[in-house]
Amino acid sequence: MAFEKVKRSENYSEWYNNLVKNADLAEHAAVKGCMIIKPYGYAIWEKMQQQLDKMFKETGHSNAYFPLLIPKSFFEKEEKNAEGFAKECAVVTHYRLKVDENRKIIVDPDAKLEEELIIRPTSEAIIWNTYRSWIQSYRDLPILLNQWANVMRWEMRTRLFLRTSEFLWQEGHTAHATAEEALVETKQMLDVYAEFAETFLGVPVIKGVKTSNETFAGAVETYCIEGLMQDGKALQMGTSHFLGQNFAKAFDVKFQTKEGKLEYVWATSWGVSTRLMGALIMAHSDDEGLVLPPNLAPFQIVIIPIYKTDEERARVQEKAFEIKKTLEKNNISVKFDDRDTHKPGFKFAEWELKGVPLRIGIGPRDIENGTIELARRDTKEKSVINIEGIDIFIKNLLEEIQSAIYIKAKSFRDSSIHKVDSWDEFTKVLEEKAGFLSAHWDGTSETEEKIKNLTKATIRCIPLNNEQEVGTCVLTGNPSSQRVLFAKAY
Amino acid sequence: MAFEKVKRSENYSEWYNNLVKNADLAEHAAVKGCMIIKPYGYAIWEKMQQQLDKMFKETGHSNAYFPLLIPKSFFEKEEKNAEGFAKECAVVTHYRLKVDENRKIIVDPDAKLEEELIIRPTSEAIIWNTYRSWIQSYRDLPILLNQWANVMRWEMRTRLFLRTSEFLWQEGHTAHATAEEALVETKQMLDVYAEFAETFLGVPVIKGVKTSNETFAGAVETYCIEGLMQDGKALQMGTSHFLGQNFAKAFDVKFQTKEGKLEYVWATSWGVSTRLMGALIMAHSDDEGLVLPPNLAPFQIVIIPIYKTDEERARVQEKAFEIKKTLEKNNISVKFDDRDTHKPGFKFAEWELKGVPLRIGIGPRDIENGTIELARRDTKEKSVINIEGIDIFIKNLLEEIQSAIYIKAKSFRDSSIHKVDSWDEFTKVLEEKAGFLSAHWDGTSETEEKIKNLTKATIRCIPLNNEQEVGTCVLTGNPSSQRVLFAKAY
Questions:
Q1: Closest CA–CA distance from residue A73 to any residue of chain B (Å)
Q2: pLDDT of res. A121
Q3: How many CB atoms neighbour CB A262 within 10 A?
Q4: For B388-440, what is each residue's pLDDT tens digit?
Q5: pLDDT of residue A135
Q6: Which residues on A lie below 8 Å from B69 (Cβ)?
Q7: Which of A134, A296, A335, B220 is positioned for an S-S bond with A302, CB 3.0–4.6 A?
Q8: A455-486 pLDDT, tens per residue?
Q9: pLDDT at residue number B127
Q10: In the predicted model, what is the mean pLDDT of residues A132-136?
Q11: What percent of chain B has pLDDT over 70?
Q12: Which residues of chain B does A153 touch, with a Cβ-Cβ cutoff of 8 Å?
């Protein structure tokens, strides 16, 4: 292929940027910090969406759509958030352009809005302002909604998929009659995210709760799933917030209980975004390009014909179509790359770069033998297999690849969780091995902040079902009742 | 139900607004001109999306995503559009909020953008600016992309679904090596829209081409599908534009032909929006509420249990679940409304309001008889049918309803196309019968404009495959070679 190769081991960040670009996943837009998701990248995102949407519906949620723009005053209602919320937002101040005397397009100064509007960084405010009129009685609860949308946070340092000013996501917003029910929902959605990450992305995740430093401004508790990338950095892949009654109080949303009392409504919100594309890329890919788990691959298998003459081409084509049909009958998605503008070697490299899990090469001699050559993207193993019974063989192999990708990532992740018991050990392991550091911490925000300033490592989470164990904080030596997970993170 | 009923015949516009609100389809948002699409409304939109997306993919298109914000200067590049393009746009001028000394949230005056950004009213500009780097050679063509997105046009007078400042839509943007190929694409997508409108929405449409007055500012030709609502007003339901080389020239997008020459690329764009929800509502609904064609109904059938005692409830429940399962095996979507908070009569009215095509009422006596009571939403016919064989019966009946809804709308539409041959006749028929007026027109924009100012009727389209017929313009008496369709429109 016509691009420079940088190995992961040489420059992980450059390797990532090249891969996103060369595999046709995304590119930077003319507007600073925004991205264009290219068709191949978008096809992977669509597969993620479809599966997540199915899981949301299976757990009783419906989709809806709330407006892009939020009046500035709404943000003031979230008292608690006045300090905490992200202020790097896109602000709409005018509603008209006009052509001036020089035929230049200018913003019409007469079309200034009375109140500025903010492009949603997240939709709690507008949604809870709406729930006020939807909820009167316990009969109106629970409300279990999700929205697929674009959101915007003005970012200075951006990286495709991982951190962009505009990104795509889903945001669930639920309303409940009791704290217990809201907590069950919060944890249920965390489980949905974890299951999705492990069985579709093939990325093992640690479920945990954030420290108060890292909790979403409007939340009582923030639950998260944390994955580990191949460079030993952690990536927060999804969050599920127990919002308590914070938004109900900010937007005055009360309901009449069965007993006739007026109470504030309990809330959750939860989201995953196009950041998952970054996780997918960084967890599995190699120096040849993307490695896609079959469950999310737009094409699970590519067939590349090998021929010299037109007559050979026709023969190979016929057989290839036959194989394609057989596979498609088994719900395997197949690309037959019949372009005559490129040589097989070029195609091999291109589909390797694009991470297609399996590749079939087929030529006239293969047809005579009743075989094809099969190459696995994840292990690069090649084998010759019989065309007869190919559908069952491939179906099983795709399942095996899905597992193998997960197991490889899991064994890397598991071997990257390091127990450290002193400050020396902490800094040394962080420097030399990266990954997660399982360490005692005294539970204070001050210590957490200090460690972050000293090492750039943050507490990724307090794992759920954490073992209780007496110890002393690695930095301060103060008593601690459990280890938490530190890491450098994206 | 707890709301005021207004009949279509009394006040069509109020009837529409009430219906949208009471059937839980959508509501106005806190931001002027924007709407909240409620879960039931969104579920119908999702069904539309799924089907359209399938049809786009079957015709070779892929989805992608381009940024929400467009630099103001991009609009200047569309020379032709400097005058013509819609200037009522939301303008982003700042990128940060801050908390002032009084703890009020204000726009940070230090965070002013160097160049203002426009929330996309449509994405030709940003997409063609991107295509410039994607297209070098004929080998890179065609590009067949679609995007599902929110767009924004600042509207002063809004109506839910029909005209809102923010709306959801899809926009196809394709690039081709020849004018012929781009024209074939333009017409193909018009056919896709027409097929979708007729077989899913159940709304007959007239395919035509717009006059130059009504052509999209950046287009050479605008094709459209026009539907007729029950009040005799026309609704433009979708457009497909042949853009010629306009955008390629504005954004300097050239390609090398097979022969090695450099040429500008040919383009199309095409879109339908949440406006189709308005078409669906206005074409079929009646004074009792929504009438949904089975192909787009979130639930095709609702089962309502009728019982007095707990014992009866249990028996009815069991049978209802059995029927539900049988129907679901046949891909029929079923809602079992087992709420014990509401009486059957209330539920009947609610699901009637929400337009569910079929309703089953089932009680203890029905079970004894092995029957259920079945009510059709569109005709309000009731019948008693056997539970045995119910799946095949319902499956066929749903198909019949889909056809019946279309036929009813078509016979109304067909009887609402009036040939008129004089100005007196034109104004009289427009006043008394509404609908489409098929009339001769002298082909000038001036006459078209005059007729619009005199009567509010516009030329909806010049139908494709229009009969050529010599005549004289209804207004000016000047010669004309064909009739065109006038109507008042949304």
A1: 8
A2: 95
A3: 9
A4: 999 999 999 999 999 999 999 999 999 999 999 999 999 999 999 989 999 99
A5: 98
A6: 31, 34, 90, 166
A7: A335
A8: 999 999 999 989 999 999 999 999 999 999 99
A9: 98
A10: 98
A11: 97
A12: none
Q: Parse chain A into domains and list their residue ranges.
A: 12-69+133-284, 299-397, 417-487
Q: Cβ B30–A129 below 8 Å, yes or no? A: yes
Residue A349: helix, strand or coil by DSSP? helix
* Spatial separation of the C-alpha atoms in residues B406 and B195, rounded to whole Å: 12
* φ, ψ for residue B303, nearest 5 deg: -110, 125
Nearest by CB: B145 against A39, A68, A108: A39
- A-chain CB neighbours of B67 within 8 Å are 29-31, 34-36, 166
Q: What is the rounded CA–CA span in Å between residue B34 and residue B24?
A: 16
What architecture does CATH give domain B24-284? 2-Layer Sandwich (3.30)
Write down the pLDDT at residue A245. 97
Contacts of A39 in chain B (CB under 8 A): 62-64, 145
Q: Which CATH number fits domain A299-397: 3.40.50.450, 3.40.50.10860, 3.40.50.800, 1.10.580.10?
A: 3.40.50.800
Best probe of the B interface among A24, A92, A148, A173, by most B CBs < 10 A, is A92
State residue B446's pLDDT score.
Answer: 97
Which of B31, B47, B103 to mutate to probe the A interface, most A CBs <10 Å? B31
- CB pair distance less than 8 Å for B66 and A105: no
Range B256-280 average pLDDT? 98
Exposure letters A222-246 (e unless 16+ CB within 10 A, then b): bbbbbbbbbbbbbbbbbbbbbbbbb
Contact A65 B118 (CB under 8 A): no
Strand residues in A306-414 grouped as ranges (E):
334-336, 358-362, 371-376, 382-386
Q: Do B68 and A107 touch (CB under 8 A)?
A: no
**Å between B39 CA and nearest CA of chain A:** 5
Q: Can you give the pLDDT at residue B102? A: 84
What are the pLDDT digits (tens) for A278-336?
A: 999 999 999 999 999 999 999 999 999 999 999 999 999 999 999 999 999 999 999 99
| Domain B417-487 in the same topology as domain B294-397 | no
Query: In chain B, what residues touch A104 (CB-CB under 8 Å)?
Result: 76
Q: Which two tokens stand for residue A38?
A: 């290219």
pLDDT value of position A85: 60
Q: Is A47 left (phi over 0), alpha (psi -120 to 50) or beta?
A: alpha
Is there a contact between B97 and A89 if contact means CB atoms under 8 Å apart? yes
DSSP string, A287-332: TTB----GGG-S-SEEEEE--SSHHHHHHHHHHHHHHHHHHHHTT-
Among the partner-chain residues A93, A130, A150, the one whose CB lies closest to the CB of B94 is A93
The matching CATH number, chosen from 3.90.870.10, 3.90.226.10, 3.30.110.30, 3.30.1300.10, for B417-487 is 3.30.110.30
Q: How far, in Å, CA of B224 to CA of B237, rounded?
A: 7
| Contact residues on chain A for B123, CB-CB shorter than 8 A | none
Provide the percentage of residues in chain A whose pLDDT is more than 90: 93
Question: A269 exposed, middle or buried (CB, 10 Å; 0-12, 13-18, 19+)?
Answer: buried
Helix or strand run (H / E) with residue A130 = helix A124-134
| CATH homologous superfamily of A12-69+133-284 | Bira Bifunctional Protein; Domain 2 (3.30.930.10)
Q: At which residue do the structure tokens 């965070």 appear?
A: B111
- Residue B478 predicted with pLDDT over 60: yes
d(CA A178, CA B79): 59
In Å, what is the CA distance from A459 to each residue of A204, A331, A426? 18, 43, 13
Helix (H) or strand (E) holding B312: helix B310-329
Check whether B199 has a pLDDT greater than 80. Answer: yes
CATH 3.40.50.800 fits domain B294-397: yes
